[in-house]
Amino acid sequence: MDRFRFLKKISWMEKFVQKGTEIIAPVPMAPPGTTGLGGFEVPSSKGGTLRSDASALNIGVLHLVPTLEVFPLLADPKMYEPNTIDLTDHNELEYWFTVLSEHLPNLVDIAVASEGGTDDAKRRGDAFARAFSAHLARLMEEPAAYGKLGLANLLELREECLREFQFVDAYRSIKQRENEASLAVLPDLLTELDSLSEEVRLLTLIEGVLAANIFDWGSRACVDLYHKGTIIEIYRMSRNKMQRPWRVDDFNVFKERMLGSGDKKPHPHKRALLFVDNSGADVVLGMLPLARELLRRGTEVVLVANSLPALNDITAMELPAIVAEAAKHCDILRRAAEAGGLLVDAMVSGLDGSKENSSLVPLMVVENGCGSPCIDLRQVSSELAAAAKEADLIVLEGMGRALHTNFNARFKCDALKLAMVKNQRLAEKLIKGNIYDCVCRYEPAS
Question: Coiled-coil stretches, from where to where (predicted)?
Fold first, then answer.
């Protein structure tokens, strides 16, 4: 009985550390189970075919049709350059090619495991490695061989090569394990957040997004932590001991916009576009609680996710299932998801689904139109372009979307860029800092 009482008192983070054994376990060498959505409907893609993007790499970089629209909230589309890293510098090019080459064996292992470790999967894994290595070798000799080259293009090329050899979602089983472990402790986290004052809660939410962004299978440093079995402990440490000021720290400006100062209370944003990043803790324990806070304040929230899988990034097809599970334990999320059409047929038994409790502010999901860890806002899905027309806040989260690309982008609306830096060279070049430094960059509307 005493042991039972002790277990009941442990924090959500301690529970997550216990659940972490599911995350750091070896990749299963068997076909993964279904990640079906339990009967809940998901946003349907208006285009299931793929096209070649002639404005970037001309080898058939994959985008879902339609992706011809420029993101309408760019301050100056003609001056917009998504890539932050300048690969015309040969030393920079050589460094990032080395990073991608060193990550390749681990990626092949995960891709083969995702297909059950069969002989056929191993053959395709070897073929993928040879093909991608050949592309890197050619680009090293002739960087302009496929058109203008940026780091985002290289990362997208890697994803295309995976799909070319029928590795549709190499991280599927890993994502499922991470989502399940994170969802198991989400109710306790939300309870803790609700016990905090408004100002403390906002800071805790931003800290949570930054700390959870460490769960990134695209970072060599984080992959090493996974293999050492320490990433859960690193998360707990960063979550508990995150000290300000961060390397880039505009939180106070963001807080004043959200909460006001003195007796002056600002109007809430009308609609926020949250560009989410990784599966698991990143989206479940980081971005979803932030979305919930915005909903609580009367802001419509649109979760913007990849159309196609890339590393362990969450996709638009996977998000509704996560929202549905979270909504079972949170009325704010449930009512907003119902209003946004994410939950249908009164899916949560035992919760009051009456009209008087329906939310006036919806929670929605749209696909961004790409299948890369980065995003080029010159080409987004028509759904995202339409959703952006009513938005007055953008949150770009993660290294790919907020640092590798779009760190210098300016927008017509308020923009918040959040990321934990998981590459030492990027930290030195971009923010004059170190690995695991945090970026909280807030820019009012241009």
Answer: none
Number of domains in the chain: 2
Q: How far apart are alpha carbons 291 and 326 in whole angstroms?
A: 12
| Host H or E run for residue 25 | none
Same domain, 289 and 219: yes
pTM for the model: 0.85
Tokens 């690193």 sit on residue: 234
How many helices (H) and strands (E) the chain has is answered by 18, 9
> Is 5 part of a structural domain of the chain?
no
Residues 63, 51 contacting (CB under 8 angstroms): yes
CA dihedral of residues 413, 419, 425, 428 (deg, nearest 10)? 70
* Shared domain check, 214 and 105: no
Pairing of strands 63-64, 50-51: antiparallel
Alpha-carbon distances, residue 274 vs 79, 303, 352, 368 (angstroms): 23, 5, 28, 11
Its domain, for residue 186, covers 171-344+359-443
Within this chain, do residues 184 and 142 fall inside the same structural domain, yes or no? no
Burial 26-40 (b: 16+ CB within 10 A, else e): ebeeeebeeeebeeb
Asked if residue 276 lies in contact with residue 283, where contact means CB atoms within 8 angstroms, the answer is yes
Alpha-carbon separation of residue 317 from 14, 35, 65, 366, 373 (angstroms): 30, 10, 16, 9, 16
pLDDT digits (tens, 9 = 90+) for 195-250: 999 999 999 999 999 999 988 777 877 877 777 767 777 787 777 778 899 999 99
As a whole number of angstroms, the distance between CA 409 and CA 375 comes to 12
